[in-house]
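Lecture 7 notes: from sequence to structure.

We start with a single chain of 233 residues. Read the sequence below before looking at the structure.
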Amino acid sequence: MESFLRFLDLEKEQMSHLVILGDLFEFFFGFKNVPSKKRSFPFTEYLPVLEKIQVLSRQGMTIKYFEGNHDFFLESLFSEQFQMEVEVHADGSEERLGGKKTFIAHGDLSNSRQWKYRAFRRLLKNRWTYGLIHFAGPRLSRTIAQWLSRMSYRKYHREQPTRPPPAFKAFAHRKFMEGFEIVILGHSHFPEDEEEWLQGRRCRYFNIGDWQDHRSFLRFTPPDGFELSRFVE
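Now the structure, written as tokens:
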């Protein structure tokens, strides 16, 4: 967390937009009607980062947040709890970067063969489950979320992969076939910068990797400059 705060401080003068591709925290849910006092906020350990983003937003920076598989129901949290404008996307979104048709998403739906995960995701990300989480409250919900996270880790991360999962690049190719020229994803924890020529079009796929292990991020400088970098202190 401290390194991310230092990154924001060092980069803020060069940024007009900050785009977060989800899973910034272990479990993040937009509980409503919580007290405004800091000590009563359900995620007090997240406050340093959230308050830093709040400052950037009030200084005029555009903030976009793409929900990941650890983020739920964030649409109104930023405006109601922190009085700041954050454009929240529950799924992927089409954008224009340097005039190029761009697809941006967290990336957890990239592997079409993970039908069990997709079904589980639909079970988690719907208004009925959100209602149950509200009813359970922050403490019980976080306990259950931590248990589910441990179960998922044991199932999907028993062995640490040494190379990026191919499903993400294959997903990007499908998006290129749909007419996109740029695809930006996360979730895989592997930074990637791949180029593909398709029907005379130069297409590029980026995976921003992760912050915990790689300190990786993607910088876009108009009109068409992309640079996948790592934050070195």
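The radius of gyration is 18 Å. Keep this in mind for problem set 3.
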